[in-house]
Structures
1.
Amino acid sequence: MFKVFWSVLHRDLLLAVRRRTDVLTTLVFFVIVVSLFPLGVGTERAVLRVLGPGVAWVAALLSSMLALERLFAADYEDGTLEQLLLTDQPLVLLTLAKIAAHWLLTGLPLVLIAPLVGMQYHLTDSAITVMMMSLLLGTPVLSLIGAIGAALTLGLRGGGILLALLILPLYIPVLVYGAGAVTVGAVALGEARLYLTLLAAFLVAALALAPFACAAALRISIE
Amino acid sequence: MTKPWSRFAAPASFYPLTGRLIPVFWVLAAAFILIALYWGFFETPDQLGGSNAQKGYYRIIFIHVGAAWMSMWLYAMLVAWAAVGLVFKTRLSFMMANAIAPTGAIFTFLALWTGAIWGRPSWGTYWDWDPRLTSELILFFLYIGYIALHSAIDDNRRADRAASLLAIVGLVMVPVIFWSINCPDPNQCAALHQRSGLRKVDGNILFAMLTMTLGFWMYSFATTLMRVRSMILTREAETAWVQDLVRAPERG
């Protein structure tokens, strides 16, 4: 059973390596959005320190959402997805593998580039550490919840903007506690523990529930 | 499917039944709302509260609270019908869910709007990021998302099921969302509890408020059923009974 998981994961990663720009565009989008804010609100350090956590998290939300469109789209168009649905392997596992690959390609890079954002916004070292941890726990939740929306809007015209409409409200808890963790983490590392615990709880709940909803959504979209 | 409760699950028998029920709901809605309006305007005190008194403008409460209650109740009903539809695969349940959505969205908007009007004189601002306001706004987004997804899909069957799944996912997320807005700092959750309850509301005002809510409820029944009826006609246009209905002179 895990062999299926690995083979889907491996295939998606391999495809991404062959088409590197897809991964890079998400990352560059994140960096651009984050870099635009200081130009808009002014470069005063005190202001930036307050805005930093929220801006970084909103940018993470947006870039993860933009990348979602591609989660199933290519496979849907060339018929791969239909074949995956027809296999006798559990669909939940297949979707989970696709979501995992998606996170490795779009979520993990955000975590790794977070220190750069921290420097742009003059965040303290502890805040940067917390930001990386919160992104590490939070972005998988975004991918998991977002995958449901991606499956529901599969092949629809205007899918991208519709996806934003459906999914962004559901991202709010992650945004609240993700940005909250960083804000608190700027003062003391220990303060952020409760936030990170909550994010971890979200991750566990999303891991348990979202793949099932996503699999159901795929079945609805393709029949 | 011969159980009595499932008889009206067939559009062909549901259609004439609702045709008879809708006028009743309209009359009830009008009666309740008129009573509530009269009571709210003429039988309630001009001023509310002690130290920081609310003057005549508090009377918007009669619309505001009812609309807010209905907005939440209708979302629960929407999800209930969506779940029934997904489980029993009944066409009519999906139509009910779909017909509730616009009314629910309107009540959510009404609650936000009247809240803004009320907030201006009493808080000095149209909008505040108060947990209740924010959650109502999110609820509005959920309604819009449901309606948008449903209307983006041309195939009725897929639209019904996809939008239903979305509504259920939304309902699962609602407690988490509301809770995260209510206590953005998990260290101080207890301090942020809202301190108002029905018991604190004066009986006189409560009467007008509840009557108005009943009126809104009846209004929701009427509009939802009307929408379901037109949906039945569009979707079942090919069936024999609808053809007969259209050919025969309008009998309702």
2.
Amino acid sequence: MDNILEVKDLSRSFPDFQLNKISFSLPRGYVMGFVGPNGSGKTTTIKLIMNLTKRDSGQISVFGLDNRAKERDIKQRIGFVYDENHFYDTLTLEEMKRVVAPFYHSWDEALYRRYINEFNLPVKKKIQDLSRGMKMKFSLALALSHRAELILMDEPTSGLDPVFRAELLDILQSEMQDEKRGILFSSHITSDLERIADYICFINNGQIVLSDTRDNVIDKYVLVKGSRDQLDDAVKPLFVSIRENDFGFEGLSDQPGTIRGLLGNRALYEKPKLDDIILYTVRRDRHAAVN
Amino acid sequence: MRIVISNASSDPIYEQIRQQIRGHILKGELQPGDALPSIRNLAQQLQISVITTKRAYDELERDGFIETVSGKGSFVAPQNPDMIREKRMNLIESRMAEVVKESMLLGLSLNELQQMLELLYREV
Amino acid sequence: MPQLIKKELILQKKMFIFGLLYSIFLFIVFSSNDFRDFAYSMAAIGIAYITIIGIAQSEYKNNSDIIINSLPTTRREIVAAKYLSVVTCTVIALLIVGAVGIPFSLMPAPFDYRLLNGVDIITTIVCVLLLAALSLPIYFWTGAPWIRVVNIVIFLLIFFAPAQIAEFAVNNHQSPTIAAITQLINYQSWQLALGGMAVMLVLMTVSYYISFCIYMKKDF
């Protein structure tokens, strides 16, 4: 399959954190949710893709091209939205647009105006006077106005109200009507964009836990609820992690078949949400780190 | 065409879409040759992932309900004898269900109903 | 590259009004001063340097390198554009002081300044380039906080050193070295200035190379 983004064995170590041989790929035409808790390596990975940070080893190819050798060509075709504001905050939106627009061959001024109107952005205002949501909308308008093929977004929904989060979904999906495009967004709030993500790449502690289609990820796990006396030594190892309380337990298992066989209809089985999968996996890793 | 996605349902989303489109075709609400929304358009409308929609369409295509012409989109397939048969069977089933309900209201036993059916079957 | 220069100009634009007021202020202050001859270059150097530092600080504050480096350009061009922007900044500063000087030249004493001349221009260019050559590698290395310290030191030097040196020269005018230097200044200012320019170009090249090496290795 034609991958719009391919990351292979990417490593980078910092004094307090290590990105450890991560690999994943995003086929052209699809949306990938890059999820994991804060500090798991999402932003570092995005910065490595943009060549803002130096890698120790590994390969990154965007549109099938090496991201360092063809840096400039690749960046012509990438739209980016970052978590924090890095625009010159003393400039007005109009001035900032005049800084950014000339860099892109395929800048579409009419399209930009359309987004500005659609998002109700005050072009004469200084960036420092905008709310967080407004800054994010402005960033999105800039990212979409040069007809980028790959859109990279680092935590685009954090700090946004639910109304705009819903709008964002719609904007992104209308961008995806063009099947030559791809979107990678990172998020620690999964419920938001979970629905529209075709692929989920789950990172924790600088390592990829899993990277697959969303349906496969969800199907791989089962959420089990039952009473504590069912948790014997044969059953316990089948769980990613378990949360016990006085009245029973709730646990996530990545072996749905086996666990159903063992517990039968004495337990309750539910389809987990992405949040559950992240929560239980992070809990397991923290637990492992303590022991 | 009406498609309703329920998050509370235990069926996966692609299965819900598959069953509902299949239902529309079997009931004749969608005629052979009718265009279906594109995969990406349906995904946007329902705010679900493209892959989920694609899976539903793939399974419908596998079962012969729809056809996909590359570059043009997906269409309801010309109905083959098997499908027509399935459609008519569905019709009979639903009518029989009505008869059964009616019989239950009257307190007819299964045996009595079967005898009635046998008699009618021979006469017609 | 032209886009990066345009970015610098858009950012510099904010400083021009300040530059106008600053030069008027300096012209008034220097009017009854022994150093009125230096008013043009002092004002121009001040405007250019404050602009360069002002932009550096605003870039540092917003960590704007992240945006600029995400745009389709290269680190090499980003560094080169920064150095070229020093030149555009100097030219603009000279235009401002030159323009402010014209109405002053028509005023009665003590505000009757002469017009901007070649020595002013060359002195300004040499000084701004020297300041930039020293401070830009520090900016690329550590960002604005350290440049602020360097900035203060250099500024103290600019404002007090000339007076001190001049005083020293006046007090020791019999010293042969000083005599030679004053002669140089008095009689060969063009040659001196051109020599200075040549030295500055070499310095800028070395400075650019150092900045480039630092910037290439940077993580944002």
3.
Amino acid sequence: MKESFDVLIVGVGGQGTILASNILGEACLVAGVSVRGAETHGMAQRGGSVETHIRIGGVYGPLISPGTADLIISFDLLEALRYRHFLKTGGTIITSDAVVIPTSAFTDGAEVPTTDEIMERLGDVSCTAIDAAGLAVEAGTILAQNVVMLGAASHALPLSVEALREAISRCVPPKTVETNIRAFELGRACLEQ
Amino acid sequence: MNIRYMLGNEVIAQACLEAEIDFASGYPGTPSSEVIDYLRHQKDRDFYVEWSVNEKVAFENALAAAWTGIRSLVTMKHVGLNVAADPLLTSAYTGVTGGFVILSADDPYAHSSQNEQDSRRYALFAKIPCLDPASVREAHSMMRAAFAISEEVGLPVLFRPTTRICHSKSDVEPDVPGTGHRIGSFERNPQQYVVIPKHTRVLHKKLNEKQPAIAEMFVDRGFNTAEVRGTTAIISGGIAASYAEELISDDVSFAKIGAYPIDAAWLKAFVDQHETVLVIEELSPVIEEAVRMAATTTVVHGKMDGHLPFEGELSPAAVAQAMTSAGFAPTKTYPVVPPEEGIPARPPLLCAGCGHRAVFYAMKKVFKDGIFPSDIGCYTLGIQLGMVDTTICMGASITVGSGIAHSGEMRPVVCTIGDSTFLHTGIQGLLNAVYNGANMTVVILDNRITAMTGHQPNPNTGVTATGVASPPVSIEAICRSVGAPWVETVSSYDLTGLMQALQTAKDREGVKVIVARQPCVIAARREGIRRKPYVVDPEICTGCGLCVKFGCPAIEFHDGKAVITSLCSGCSVCADICPAGAIHKGGKQ
């Protein structure tokens, strides 16, 4: 049986991981590929660490186990490190280069690794960090970081650019389609070979 | 073809529409809430839908609707079924005429729950059929069938999805909603609906007599399936079956349990054909106990001999590990990769501008040696501020508080409870505390909505589930009406007022009630309420860090100075905390 392509989307509650996974799911429908996903709802959303599993071509359960993700898309560099154990050998991480500093760093003095330290700890895997915030602003709104990340990750996804573009236009509010497509293209272009 | 990528709960609700549901009620609770939310947001709605004040109320409303012959749904999370357990157990005796489906969503791993109870046990306890889907697609087909099954057997049907069904997504092909609705008509039948001892003894016997046919039906209709492929077998049910199906090899037999009760003779015939059987299921060993009862010479593996855990949720990797441990080679193996260490935790937090945080802050200042029972809601996150000492179930803040107050414990008791939880089961606790003369302070954290589960309206919001304006409810009047002698209302953003009210409460005897009111900051933003954000003047900031300790996610600390980020919603509380007066209004909206 053909294996599924397993993508873990991680970030901080409120960054739009669910919209990003909806876009991937919708792109699977456009491409005629089966798909399974699992999300974090409820208590875990209030600014906490969130993970969304999506199995492109999946026909069984929605969960991805540690050591088996083909791709991790991370909206926060610290979260990329937190979830890296989900990556399979030879898998890829595409991440935002920014860190939302956990509130515990200020209230309890929890030590937060620096950007350089995180990149060094991720040095043994294929990991690319991009300026998602900068590109989102360039596209027209900081809120489009999630779609910038999908653009950057599009090179690694087994879905066509056309399917992804179509999925974006179906999933985002009609008034924001243009901005989001621009965000996708900017994200995609920044990792163009 | 109309294929959609849908959330499990939406698919379940869609199936109800396809089954021509006439009535739906529920109380919000993760992971069940989106079912009623989906139904109440339907544009062309030709059925009745309500958010009820608690699960028992929701259950009895829906049960009565089914007694009038219409198709009825009630939804709740697993612990909500405890609240509704009283009518549940006897509704099996009375039975129903219209299809009645009870959705009780279980939460293995307690992602957002206080326990990991298994609703299948309730179905067995009540002797009603239980449907346990293994996937989102199966949730769709099972829910569609559930109403007809209920009508056929004349019993409530328990539909039991788990978090990984409710909050999973899948490509599904929904059908068009049905249009053939019924009008309720109550036919008087005291022998069925009045459970005096004389009637109930007869009804109990009838209920027992129905059981074998139901078990057989679930085999005949393919809810419980078995395929013999070798001398060893895996038996699984629920979401765990989807993990097992991915990992089972072609020469291992597979039986899937999608519905209860399980036909004992059918199960025995399957088990007897195998030398070894492994049972894979989440939470309680419900299938495993049935298999062990059925087995004679077959070796049975599962939780009860240590191959699988009794708690938590399963995953493909956990199932593969159990298979390996029981001598079943999975078709895939999973590496054991430990998570990275030394990463600061990022737990969920009260939002920037959440009124609850200010109330907790004031309580901590005034009641330094207080005991703080709390309840179920966003404010349970007050544990991070050291202001939640107990949480057990809905409404138990006031009752735990009065229990401690009457125990001889001398420290002051100050409990917190949200508006929705107060209206759910808090009122009785307050009535009891006042009646019995407890000495305690009750702080009602009134944010005008049921926030944690996704901002569902309650009687305190002023609108119903379908957006119809509802009569105003006065929490203060409720408190006074049960006899509370001192009830004071304060804005949750008024730190000075909060501290004054708490100090007054501290100095008084008896039950003191403070209603701390401020609309949920998320809901307020959606309503278009905007406040100017606050900024720190770095020239005045002394770097004392008091504002940072407040714990608002909008306040950071860099280079010895506090900084307010774009998350600020302008609640102004940090400006009141700052001893140097360095925080003032002035940021850009």
4.
Amino acid sequence: MAATLRNVTTYDLRLAAPLALGFVVFFITPLVILLALSFQADPQGTHYGLTQYVNFLGDRFSLGVLGSTLWLGVKVTLLTLLLGYPVAWLHQRAPSWAKGIIMLLVLLPLLTSVVVRTFAWVVILGRQGIVNAALASLGLIDTPLKLLYTDTGVVMALAQVQMPLMVLPLITALGRIDPNLADASSVLGAGHWRTFRKVTLPLSLPGIIAGCLLTYAAAITAFITQSLIGGGQMLFMPMYIYQQASTLQNWPFAAAISIVFLVAVLVVVSIFNVLGRLSRGYTNA
Amino acid sequence: MVSASPSNPAAPRGRTLLLDGITQRYGGSVAVNDVTLDIRGGELVALLGPSGCGKTTLLRIIAGFLAQTKGHVIVGGETVDGLPPNRRSVGIVFQNYALFPHMTVAENVAYGLDARGADRATQRSEAQRMLDLVKLGHLGDRYPRQLSGGQQQRVALARALAVNPSILLLDEPFAALDKNLRLDMQIEVKRIQRLSGITTILVTHDQEEALSMADRVAVLSQGRLEQFSPPTEIYDAPDSLFVNTFVGSANLLGGVLVDADRSGGKVRLDAGGLIGTRAPKGDLRPGSRVTVCLRPEHLRVDPGAEGVETLNGVVEMGLPLGATVVHEIRVGDGTAVKVSEARIDRTLLLAPGTPVRLAPIAPGLASVFAAA
């Protein structure tokens, strides 16, 4: 019996070997190299030390970029949750033909390139863009509003671009909730709002946490959207790293801020994971 | 709240429930067709029927989850049509119990009280009292997943009763329990229902459950009410061929009605023999083709039987079932007839191929309906 089990396990491991190899070559190794690089004290690599980290952590500008990037993620995640939850809820309640349409609309952004979607936002938000043209022709504004190259613009565009990452886990979580629970709640005297607050929302927490995790991770690392909508005035971590590495050829510093960024993201992800485990603990019946 | 105790013999009377000509259409199909049920206060009524007969639809209409196409739901003389579920004062025990998995047992039971604005102290004491009623007073701090199926059902019952509803709805509540536990819970639910005197509707497809628990049984088929009577009447005097075959088992024999009046009828069976029956249902005249329903326990194998009521046949198989013995006997027209007898005589089991004579144990037990 034990021998059979062992055979099954080794068989499974062999099946995973190609992926594991790719993982080691293309992910673990570069990460180790990156880590080693970050400890070089100067671009020439003459000696090693913590110089790059000291430089980053002692530099107000660098810390500001890190802070605004992490904060951008929070804003995008909250906006996505706020807009995405009703969509997922609607999908749950809709008749099956409408479910298909809602799902298509949710998935549609994934079928086009991020570059295309982001350029669409440039067209919408620009000085002569759709929003400004509409507001102007309605006589609501005289001079065009500045939407492009602003924080608000970046948040809006990122929220739209990352929306599927929020909505899909939410749909899954809401779909797992026994519809009888809402019926039971209403029969016991609860109105729609109380039922939502006391039953639906707490039971959808695993989906909320999964969605927030994905959206957050995607939003803070979204190089293309951040750069195109944010323009030259706004600097976030991915662009900062790119400038240091490509333009200034300061590889050790680029590596160090990459590691700092990675650690910061891992901390946020760990917090989400802990929350996720707690919420799963009490929702599994 | 439910204030009756075993020491109080005068249990409070529940409120009446009148379903007045309820019809429910889904697109082109009719799920419930003009069903009228007049249910007395404190009565336990079973809605019995195969799946798709409309019993669950009726339950959802009473609860207010569904708005009926036609007809009225009247609770204690007041029409509740158009009221949402949270203002109907009904309690439901769902088939899967639908306990809130993220709340403790006590929180589940207190949920309805909280929704109705009761203060914390009242919530706690009432929840505890309801849990004591279902004998789970010591498990208030557990989560539903930590309880067995029977315990979960007790919690669901306590939660439904905690808000003192006018009507208690039980949706196939015993289907998920294993057989031994099911009987215990049926007795338990019946005890609590008697104690609280609450008008109760039990939806079930299990005829034994319906017959054993209910004061009256409403048999439904394809959205229509077939019969609404006390259990013994459902069994002994079925109104339709459907009721006769769905509840209990029945041997169906073809024949021709030769004589009928209000007290009974006589049918010449295709299998031979002239059998006395109950008064035929519906518009049947002498000469009509009919189907006679004879329950297996209404027949006996009797080598010495004589007279016109006897049938000749050959034993196909004999099954000793402990207290009873069942013989399958092929009669004159080729129909296989089951005969169930108490096993008082050890020599009763007959070998296949034995020619036998069958006779009803008493005259006039068979039901007769228009030929299907």
